[in-house]
Design a protein that fits this description.
22% of the residues are buried. The chain is globular, with a radius of gyration of 20 Å. By secondary structure, the protein is α/β, with parallel strands linked by helices. Strands 3-2-1-4 form a four-stranded parallel β-sheet, with helices on both faces. 32% of the residues lie in helices and 15% in strands. The protein is built from four helices and four strands.
């Protein structure tokens, strides 16, 4: 009886970008991907650097498999977004990594434009307008019925 041959899969380093990474759900995604058995470089985007991101940066500074880079980015400022993209490209070149992103986790969001003229349809979970939300989902994802009654 012959033994089956083993196949060894060599996985390249995965590139993950997380917006809203300084706290809450975004920070949880950052931690999750850093602990992955697959070598991962995480680009943690946020307006400001948090204490937790600093701790993770020190913890993974000498890691042979996973790395974290904080990238300042304010999602309401186009120049900030362009700068963040350039920082990620440059860091990938320095690390001799591919320039493709394997996963983008967008946790940061904007509710309206924060003005009295056009405040947006909601400011908190309690003020979400069900009909506006339903229409938004129907336009974006017409084949899925989210609001069955």
């Amino acid at each position: 009886m012959t033994r089956p041959q083993r196949t060894i899969i060599i996985m390249n380093k995965r590139i993950v970008v997380v917006s809203g990474a300084s706290k809450g759900i975004g920070l949880a995604f950052v931690k999750y991907h850093l602990m992955s058995p697959v070598p991962t470089t995480v680009y943690a985007l946020s307006r400001s650097r948090s204490h937790e991101i600093d701790i993770l940066s020190k913890q993974y500074a000498q890691s042979p498999s996973s790395q974290i880079h904080h990238v300042p980015c304010d999602l309401i400022d186009d120049n900030s977004i362009f700068n963040a993209v350039n920082v990620i490209k440059e860091q990938c070149r320095k690390d001799d990594e591919k320039l493709g992103i394997d996963l983008l986790v967008n946790v940061a969001g904007i509710l309206g434009n924060n003005t009295t003229e056009q405040p947006g349809p909601e400011r908190s979970i309690g003020s979400i307008q069900r009909n506006w939300m339903k229409t938004s989902f129907e336009v974006s994802f017409p084949s899925i019925n989210y609001f069955q009654v």
